[in-house]
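Late entry, evening session. Most of the bench is empty. Finally got around to the prediction I had been postponing all week. Sequence below, unchanged from the version circulated by S.P.
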Amino acid sequence: AVRVEYYVERIVKGGINVNSEMKFEKTGNATGILHGENGLGFTAAMEAMKEAIEIEKTEGVAAVGMANISHSGALGYFTEYAASQDMIALSVCQSDPMAVPFGGSEPFFGTNPIAFAAPALNGEMFSLDMATTVQAWGKILHARSKHEDIPLGWAVDESGKETTKSKEVHALLPIAGPKGYGLMMMVDVLSGVLLGVPTGKNVSSMYEDLTKGRELGQFHLVINPEMFVGVEQFKQNLSNVISELHAVKPSPGFPQVFVPGELGLAKEAEYER
């Protein structure tokens, strides 16, 4: 909802092609590419996920890319859909260059998010949806609007030095230093290099020149647990892990140990009621 105005403006200015004729090209028994023609990213990502699910029902696994699409929103939406269909799914996508590579002082990669979801019993699931930067750019903008400082470790200034001054922020930092940097590059390889769309520092800006298409890439990997331990046994096994995590003694200040995505899914269920 926070970006509705942006999407409308980009559509009006021609940067999102609402008349795109998206085409799915099956490139192998378990692979394919959805050519988005800079159409709505939400539509492209969901269509690609549905194609992937159909493929892996018979092949056991599906790897589907989306080339030349617009921003597709929260990745967890698509992986959670796959989990609701009793599938395991991983999705990664590119974003604007706004994070420095480890040891660098200039933005190169985006927040390059990763989402993963897997089904458990009784509608439960494990759902991870995370950026590979310590914080989102929106948190920096919020601090600036409030004339507030930010915690050390979030971002760097133009010289590449960590800063707590929100107005001095030039770029974001990757999570866990070289580890987050490595994950950012992995995302770019899968959703950019692999699909022949602009990569790294050449990925288009979300808010500059709304008349042009973003030409973004995204990648879904979907696995059918029936081809391994079996769907019902997989769901039982994952539910066992979740129960064991819930039983872990919490540290001071925490009511219990939660599974990644659990609180967010609970809020979604509450809103639906």
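Two things to note before I forget:
The chain has a mean pLDDT of 95.
The radius of gyration is 20 Å.
Will write this up properly tomorrow.
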